[in-house]
Every structure is written in structure tokens, then in C-alpha cells.
What we know:
Shape: globular
Strand content: 5-15%
CATH superfamily of the largest domain: Aminoglycoside phosphotransferase (APH), C-terminal lobe
CATH topology of the largest domain: Aminoglycoside 3'-phosphotransferase, Chain: A, domain 2
Number of helices: 10
Radius of gyration: 20 Å
Number of strands: 11
Number of domains: 2
Bound molecules: adenosine-5'-diphosphate, 2-acetamido-2-deoxy-1-O-phosphono-alpha-D-glucopyranose, magnesium ion
Order of helices and strands: HEEEHEEEEHHHHEEEEHHHH
CATH architecture of the largest domain: Alpha-Beta Complex
Oligomer: single chain
Mean pLDDT: 96
Amino acid sequence: MNYTEITSRFGIEGEFSPCGNGHINDTLRSADGKYILQRINTSVFTDPEKLMENIENVTAFVQNKLREQGEDPARRTLNVIRTLKGKSYTVYEGQAYRMYDNIGGTKEVEPGSKTPQDMYGAGRCFGEFQKLLADFPSKTLHETIVNFHNTESRLVDFRNAVFSDRAGRLQEVTDEVEFVLKRSHIADVVLNDMVRGLIPSAVTHNDTKINNILFDKETEKPLAVIDLDTVMPGSRLYDYGDALRGGGSTADEDENDLSKVKVDMESFKAFTKGYLEEMKEVLTPREIELLPFSIRLMTYECGVRFLGDYLNGDTYFKIHRPKHNLDRARNQFKLVEELEACEAEMSAVIREMLG
Ligand code: ADP
Ligand code: GN1
Ligand code: MG
């Protein structure tokens, strides 16, 4: 496809080619390495106007905070480039596109190839992100995907996927469905404690895979949290748990040799150390208590989403092979079992870290 018509609306010329590994948007980088063009997946994010308003407000807030701290924000956060008409995105042939400055000299780390050092950096980086946004007025954010980490609501969607069995695949996954149902009681733990006021609602990223951080290629230190589409009010536990869902496993979520899926205790310790260095004064006692549980909750929820998507005929997550979503679901459920066995040990590690 020729992107000239789109990029010229941003006053930008030149070739763009695909980059990145995300499951949702299509990302392209300019040949001169200056810009990122993204096609926003509008079947997932149905209101690009509100989505971009969130991203512009959050990035402006973070940029100001960093300036106040005496830091140059240029490589530390996304920067939205507006169209010549002053809009934060443009629609071309029914598709929405946005442009960012490319944060150069960076690399991303995939969950399957991270080191404990990367995980320490990721813990600090996501912790810092939450801290920088702690006094952002979270109620002004739009809910770009309603009930995104509401595990109970995910279970309702899942049951509907089972009932309708749209792709005729239910017969094949009865064991996995039973696995989900047996653990459905864990879905309301965080939600109920939010209602009780034991867990605050805060600005959260909601998609804290390690590949949503850009690392400096030279120093290997984390620079910027990207992929801000799902920044919304939520529980900070969602960010901590989701980061270790991927980063706390010895295997990538795409791995289908389940014997390779174990809890990576070194990565867990490294991430938690970095995260607590930023956040230990901010978290409530109940949040601290639920840190290990949140990993299991987010892993379970993601497995439920993968299996639901498989039953629906793979309409949400990009897949690269038949049964990809089923493999991902099995991988997540194996990790849930491993996490169940390690939770007490993880709690002990956290208690020791906090002294
Ligand atoms: P998705 O929602 O599909 O995961 P992302 O926003 O995470 O999309 O972008 C996908 C990939 O594109 C990232 O992992 C990163 O490699 C690259 N990328 C995105 N934005 C930038 C940017 N501003 N600078 C440099 N690389 C970027
Ligand atoms: C999607 O966009 P990406 O690849 O960073 C998904 C996350 C899942 C993840 C599983 C908006 O993240 O919620 O945890 O895939 N993002 C959205 O890999 O649904
Ligand atoms: Mg991403």
C-alpha cells in the first residue's frame, strides 16, 4: 500500500515499512527513522477521537512532570504529531491513522528473551509511570475499552462465547473450559476490594507487556512506556500482574511446549524489586498483599480471553497459525497452575524485600 496520501496529511514525506510485534495495531516506521505511523485498530478501539484525547493528555502530563524533574522528555514518552489541520489522527478509506515521533536508538525486549536485568528496568519503568501519573485526574480519562481488566465481565463474555460456539470448536476444548470454570471464584477479589476502598482506582496502563517499553540500545536501560491505547482508570495491580504474566514466565506466551512454561523466579524478583523501589510508599497494604495473586489473576484473565477468542473464530487477537489462540490459552493456563504452586514463596520474597 502507498501511504503517501496519509503521511502528507501530517506534512510528512518518504517511505514507511512495517515494524513491531503487537497483536492489535499495524505499525510502520519511516525509512529515515524519524516517524512512526500507526493504523489504529478501530474494531478494538471504536472511538479514536476519545482514544487520542487520552493519549495526548497523558503524554502532555508526563512530559511536564519530567521537565519539572529537570529531565528532557524527548525520548522518555510518546509524542503525538498532529495533522496539518490540527487533528490527532486522520481517517483514510475508513481506517484511522496516527503519527508519533520515532523514539530512536531503542530496542524492544520480547517476553521470551528478557533477562532479569531487563525485568528490573521494566519494574522501575512501569512503577515510575504509575508514580508520574499518581496525581493525574483519572476521572477525566475515557474508558477506551469498557471493563478491560474486569475479570468478571471477561467471564461473562467467555460464557457467551461457549454458549454460541460460533466457530464450532467447543468439543475440542472442554478440558480448558472446565479449567476456567473451576477457578471463576478468583475473578471478583480485586473488584470487591476496590468497592471496599482497600484498593484505590488509579491511572493504569493496562497492557504492561515488556515489549511496550522501549529500551536504550546502548545503555540497555528502559526509556519510555509506549502503547498507551488502554491507559484508563483501574487497579495498579493490573499493571503489576500483567507485566509478570509475560515477563515472569520462563517461556513466551506463544510457546506450545508446555514443559517450558514455568515461573521465572529471578525475573519475578528483579521486576518486583524495581517496581517496589518506585511504588512501595504509594501502595496500600492490601495492594502489597495481593501482588503475587495479581499475576495469577491477570494470567488467568488473559487465558480466558485467548480461549474465548478461539471459540469466537479468532476475531480479536492477530494469529499467525491455526489454533494459535488455543495454544496461547493453554500456555496461560499452565502458567496459572505453576503460579498457584509458587504464590506462598512469592509472598515471602516480597515480605523480605520490604523488610
Ligand atoms: P500494538 O498495540 O500493536 O502492540 P504498539 O504501540 O505497542 O502497538 O507498537 C508496536 C511496536 O512498534 C512497538 O513494540 C515498538 O517496537 C514500535 N513503536 C511504536 N511506537 C514507537 C515509537 N514512538 N518509537 C519507536 N518505536 C515505536
Ligand atoms: C494485546 O497490543 P498488545 O499486543 O500489546 C492486548 C493485551 C493482551 C496481549 C496479549 C488492547 O496487547 O490486553 O494482554 O495482547 N491488548 C489489547 O499478548 O487487547
Ligand atoms: Mg504493544
